[in-house]
Model the fold of this input.
Amino acid sequence: MIRDQKALDQLLDTLARFVGERLIPLEAQVAHDEAVPDAIVDEMRGLGLFGLSIPEAYGGLELTMEEECLAVLVLGRTSAAFRGVFGTNVGIGSQGLLVDGTEEQKRRYLPKLATGEIIGSFALTEPDAGSDAGSLKTTAKRDGNGYVINGTKRFITNAPRADLFTLFARTNPCEPGAKGVSAFLVAAPTPGLRLGPIDRKMGQAGTVTSDVILEDCRVPADALLGGKEGLGFKTAMKVLDRGRLHIAAACTGTAERLIADALSYATTRQQFGKPIAEHQLVQAMLADCRTEAFAARCMVLETARAKDEGKDVATDASCCKYFASEMVGRVADRALQIHGGNGYMAAYAVERFYRDVRLYRIYEGTSQIQQLVIARNMIRGIAP
Amino acid sequence: MKVLVAVKRVIDYNVKVRVKADGSGVDLANVKMSMNPFDEIAVEQAIRLKEAGVATEIVAVSLGIEQCQETLRTALAMGADRAIHVHHDGELEPLVVAKLLKAIIATEQPGLVIVGKQAIDDDCNQTGQMLAGLLGWPQGTFVSRLKLENGKALATREVDGGLENVELTLPAILTVDLRLNEPRYASLPNIMKARKKPIEKRTPAELGVDPTPRLKTLKVSEPPKRLAGVKVDSVAALVTKLKQEAGVI
Ligand SMILES: Cc1cc2nc3c(=O)[nH]c(=O)nc-3n(C[C@H](O)[C@H](O)[C@H](O)COP(=O)(O)OP(=O)(O)OC[C@H]3O[C@@H](n4cnc5c(N)ncnc54)[C@H](O)[C@@H]3O)c2cc1C
Done:
């Protein structure tokens, strides 16, 4: 749903300018330094990017899902490293609080997340619990007026920057499945919480992940999200549900960027006496890229609109995440192919994007998990 | 002190301009339009003056078609307090714009008027100067540095020979150049809030100005395509070519 087309156009225009004038020129530097310059982070705060999804009542922009997807389509046109800075505040680092937090918890943290004064992070995955997140082993034991948490969280995006973790731990040891899990709001730094070394990754240089290690980490009772035990897994699933559309939009924006790069290369690079874009096999690659990216754009925006109308989009959001993340992999592969040897060289952005987009098929639910969700919902849908 | 800034809606600087097939003008159909970049610098300067406590109110003015209101919204989102749109659907020449601005200034009574040194569409570079002439106010053109103190504007002008420092008694007209500042992006929350700020609508008739153009555009054509250059292998060859072929030395 778009509330005010002209305001949104102006907003998207401003984002496009910021991406084109400020971020794209810095991509190579950020990849090399593995860090986003502080001045750019400040500009992001000034622009209000940290609060895209947070309600106006808490100082955010309260974009609808369709508006958010349109914004992310623009932001997807540059390195994920930039989106990574504020991405957790917009998505997994704030949404748990937003959907299931108490009013007091929301008032305490959401305004600061919206301005970017604090960074939120989402700690679900563990060394032995990935796709099967419901089997997580981190424990939170009731102890006097609080909880004591023990365990290790793995691959936690923005952990090294985080001031607030939405962290999932088992409060009921007798219940080994999802029902025994609760969500906590753990402020950092705090005694008993430490970080592992920053992970060395295949791509997305400039985004940061690390282990979060909890050793007798004591949190007050009011750190329990929503004030109720046993609802953590449901919270996690709601957060990831919303995140699927966001990621699908990011994948699609990146695909559109890659297509623009490939098109510009294909129309200037000459072989056999003409631009390679005039060779039909190159045209086939361009057309396949365009067609698939367009399909993803339609899927994402259609599903976002349906979500804004209050429809249940769980299955379709999974379809979007599954298709868009696989699609951008194929688009990156073709875009690299169109660049020939140059595509394999670090001097061209496509080499970097090719590695960056690989992640999208893995996190926030692998492609296989999306397939399972889609098929199970289909089967459930015809059950008597 | 009230500051008045004029902002023009022009073809976005990233757009590759195309001339209409019949040579009657530039093709504007489905072309992205934005605020003239020099006017963005004017707005930015006004905001900085307000942030420094020198200016108290910023009024943005745009003249032209209905969509100029979008340009005004951008100025409002950046930090202007209110806006005036002078609605006119036809062509507006610099002299007409200057007369209309003069009429608005008569009621608004600003202490300072800041405009871009030129608009990137027609590159006229006339409006500020004509306005100063009509008002009989001091003018500082091509300003690249500015300081206001004791009712005076100390402006550094970028002129062909270098930099010129001038002192102007306020109220005055400034036309601003590229190096004066780097305009901010309007923040996303401010873009939303700017939708609620007031835009006052006026017409040339109300302001007592006849907008009829005095010039007629006969033909617009593309600049000639640049021909490929040649490489020379020595300084001597270069000098010979510059003398004999280019005729520049
Ligand atoms: C860069 C990065 C950032 C991340 N950020 C975060 C974060 O901020 N917070 C967080 O909590 N987590 C984060 N993760 C973790 C991420 O969500 C998990 O890696 C992901 O869910 C997969 O879990 P896993 O790595 O344990 O793989 P596994 O679950 O071990 O899966 C391995 C393979 O088995 C397949 N598989 C598993 N189960 C099934 C099944 N039932 N049927 C068919 N196939 C199956 C998978 O699809 C996959 O191909 C991040 C990961 C990465 C790489």
Remarks:
- The radius of gyration of chain A is 21 Å.
- The mean pLDDT of chain A is 97.
